[in-house]
Amino acid sequence: MFGQRRSKRNIFALATLAAGALAVTALPAQAFNVHTTDGVTPTTIKLGITIPLTGSAAPGYNKIPSAMIAYFNYVNDNGGVNGRKIQLVVKDDAYLPTLAVAKTNELILKDKVFAVIGALGTANHIAVSKSVNLGRRGVPDLFLNTGFSGFSDAKKYPSTFSLFPSYVMEAKIMGQYLKDKFPGKKLGLIYQADDFGTDALAGFKQAGTNFAVKVSYASGSQSAQTAAGWVSKLKTAGAEVVVMFGVTTASGAALATSAALGYKAQWILGSVGGDATTLKAVGVPAVVLTGAIGASFLPAPTDTSDPYVAFFQGINTKYNGGAVFDNNVLVGMNTAMMTVQALRAAGANPTQKGLIAAIESKGSTFASAGLAPLNYAKGVHVGYNGYWFGSYNSSGELKPIGGDYSVYTTDSGAGAIVKSTYVRPALPANGLPTN
Amino acid sequence: MRNLLGHSSRRFKAAITFPLIGVALFLISNRVDELRVYQGANVAVYVVAIISIILLTGYSGQISLGHGALMAVGAYAAVLSQVYWHLPVILTFVVAVLAAAGFGAILGTAAGRLTGPYLAGTTLALAVGLPSLANQFGFLGGEQGLNYDVGLPPAWLGADFTQYKWFFWISALAALIVTWISFNLLGSHYGRNWRALRSNPTAAALMGIHVGRSKVLAFTVSSGLAGLAGALLAMTISLVTPSAFPTSLSFSIVTGAVLAGVTLLTGSIVGAVVLVAIPEITGALAAHLGGSEKVTSNLPGLLTSVLLIVAVLLFPNGPQAIMKRTRKSSQ
Q1: Is residue A252 part of a domain?
Q2: A351: part of which helix (H) or strand (E)?
Q3: Smallest CA–CA separation between B117 and chain A, in Å?
Q4: Which is nearest to A69 in space by CA: A301, A271, A340, A311?
Q5: Which of A277, A296, A315 is the last residue of a domain?
Q6: pTM score of the predicted model
Q7: Angle, in degrees to the nearest 10, between helices B163-187 and B4-29
């Protein structure tokens, strides 16, 4: 194929290419390197999020961005943040690490967002942190929708702020709860075989919980078939109380399959896989969920006596097309409200560095729906640190056991588990932060 | 037949051209914005992957719809050698090539007995099944995958030297080396054997070419290159996970090779640029049409398939072949 003539022509072509490339390089370098604060104009602040809108993990989570936008629009209609309207660029990562990296790149390099908010998925976000390296770039990475304890390591992830209590904390508090309420019972555990599950195992170890049987599953492998395998293991071991520490599709499969196979146990659902509307959406009959125990750090989304919930429900009706108000919507709006406060705290001329410093210094005083305290401080990027337990009633509402929210707090290490006396800040007037 | 002088002058020109392209790429990478640098790294990864298909399909005439799986083999080999043996980064790339080549040799031995749709089907099954094996064995990291860290750029490159520029440098260098090696390989008697094989296996056998051995060799070399592409891909996302190697990846690189014109090495860059540009194009398209993000995320797959069909129907030898034809007819 490379005759003399042809090869000559090829060489010419390549030489032209090289010459053209050199010509490009002669352009002034500055033309490409004008650097202002990304994402901030006198009238707007641009933020970004990557989240699964399609794919296996999408049910439930796909409601978070529209809930965030609803609250931002409410704030924008009331003057925005220091006169700037908030825009949220939403990208679908389909819960795939490759896409999460590519889409975060788009957010930062193309859309040039000021900060990334509410990124979801432990594996996805580890990939993003490594490859996109938000920390090295100094791009604020706020209020993650994951409880992996590693992300609160401010040395490793200097621009990242956790929001959810870590899975270690959750497992520790749950372990204590099991010890108190179910002494002498045979315990079973289903967990995801990755960092999410490793965190859980570390927490249960801290709490000194002994499981008669532990079943692990690979993320993505959950289905009715695999769940039948889990149930048979639990049944053989005679587990009377089963902790389900997995994503909603996994807890849905476990609940539905055990009901179908006639396996009865006291189920305890971790916060990740315990959203009632999502469980119903993936096909779990309400009767199966009834009596199961769940954990949360936010008020129950059905608790209209809670001022935050009542306010967000109003926003949901007016700005979110009246979507079914569940934990995901609550999480989205709560994150948006915290974001507005963070932006306000960063001052009239926000910079990315300033935003990070503002959350470190003022973040612990932000008004939020969370019933556990926020722990932000200089060099500490831990958000909430506690949980309360409830039981699902026949309509799928999580009702606090004992009638009121008893929150227990702890840390991701060897710290004690204590009953919290924290009183959260009151809802700002009209839900508009004035910090 | 080419005379001796022609042969060596070709090598001589190549020896000048490739470093020249390298210098040009180096200079460009300092001038364009970071998104382009990142996309450039992806183009380089695809160039390597597409060349692996060109060697296999364009030259030896074998079809593979499973090169995504071979990329996964390379990527996992590289990452495992880093995680468990703590090999230096450069050696992990070597491990990727060797592991995928070894796997390809075994596969190629079986593939040598298959042709056409049977071969396509076998390799496709591999693309569907192999990456999800990682979910079955804990040491492979499951869906969450394993981190792959090629490290920060060396300090002497300066504080402004971004991670993506580093990825680009590594992958562009790899692509150049691969192109150069392939260029020489295809000009050697191996390349001539493969072409003879592709045109007419019986005639090739009569000429004294060992058909089976030649086919397996082509499969082995091609797999090794796919393995390198896989390791480079893992580098750009700093991670290896089954979801990085979906079945659609195999189709994408075949599409890229068809767009490249399956017999043109220089066409690989065209195919690679198109593959990287597709999500951009669909994104812009969806923004214009006002489609939701849910639609946008499925458009790239659609566009890739449409391009493959159109390319096969209209210009099976690649757009470059058409350009050549029109040039010839106008002469």
Answers
A1: yes
A2: none
A3: 27
A4: A340
A5: A296
A6: 0.80
A7: 170
Q: CB neighbours of A147 closer than 8 A, spacing ≥ 6?
A: A162, A164, A165, A166, A167, A169, A170, A199, A271, A272
Please, are residues A39 and A112 in contact by the beta-carbon 8 Å criterion?
yes
Q: Please name every residue paired with A88 in a beta bridge, in sequence order, or none if there are none.
A: A47
How far apart (Å, rounded) are the C-alpha atoms in residues A360 and A380? Answer: 7
Candidate from B6, B143, B283 with C-beta closest to A123: B143
Do A199 and A105 share a structural domain?
Answer: no
- Residue B218 in this model has a pLDDT that exceeds 50: yes
Q: Any CB–CB contact under 8 A between B326 and chain A?
A: no
Q: How far apart are CA A25 and CA A340, in angstroms?
A: 42
Cβ neighbour number for residue B24 with a 10 Å cutoff: 20
Interface check for B279 against chain A (CB to CB < 8 A): the answer is yes
Tell me the residue range of the domain where A337 lies: 44-165+303-384
User: Any idea what DSSP says for residue A151?
Assistant: G
Mean pLDDT per 10-residue run, chain A (435 residues)?
Answer: 49 53 44 59 94 81 93 95 94 84 89 93 84 86 90 90 92 93 93 87 93 87 87 93 91 92 92 85 85 92 93 95 91 96 93 94 94 92 92 89 89 89 92 91
* Domains along the sequence of chain B with CATH: 10-330 (1.10.3470)
Regarding whether A292 and A172 lie in a shared domain, the answer is: yes
Statement to judge: residues A196 and A288 lie in one domain: yes
Model pLDDT, residue A33: 38
The tally of domains found in chain A comes to 2
Same domain, A205 and A157: no
| Helix axes B89-111 and B116-129, enclosed angle (nearest 10) | 140
Q: What pLDDT is attached to residue B302?
A: 83
In a domain, A283, yes or no: yes
Q: What is the pLDDT of residue B320?
A: 65
> Do A21 and B25 lie within an 8 Å CB cutoff?
yes
Q: Which of A24, A127, A133 sits opposite B28 (nearest CB)?
A: A24
Residue A10, min C-alpha distance to chain B (Å): 9
Our CA angle for B74, B79, B85, nearest 5°, is: 115
Question: Is there a domain that residue A370 lies in?
Answer: yes
Chain A positions touching B23 (Cβ under 8 A) are: 18
Residue B189 · residue B9 · CB < 8 Å: no
More confident residue, A144 or B132: A144
Give Cβ neighbours of residue A228 (< 8 Å, ≥ 6 apart). Answer: A257, A261
Task: Summarize pLDDT for B141-164 with one digit per residue, the tens.
Answer: 777 788 888 877 887 877 778 788
Kindly state whether residues A112 and A92 are assigned to the same domain. yes
- Residue B53 to residue B55: CA distance in whole angstroms: 5
Q: Which residues in chain A are closer than 8 Å to B142, comparing Cβ atoms? A: 193-194, 218-220
- Predicted confidence at residue A45, as pLDDT, reads 95
Do A63 and A161 sit in the same domain of this protein? yes
Given the DSSP bridges, would you call strands A398-400 and A115-117 parallel, antiparallel or unpaired? unpaired
CATH code of the domain in which A183 resides? 3.40.50.2300
pLDDT at A321: 92
Cβ distance B31 to A27 less than 8 Å, yes or no, reads: yes
pLDDT at B121 over 70: yes
Question: Would you state the pLDDT for residue B324?
Answer: 65
Q: B328 falls in which pLDDT band (50, 70, 90)?
A: low
Which range among A211-225, B4-18, B115-129, B289-303 shows the weakest confidence by mean pLDDT? B4-18
Question: Which of A360, A384, A408 is the C-terminal boundary of a domain?
Answer: A384
Do A58 and A158 fall into the same domain?
yes
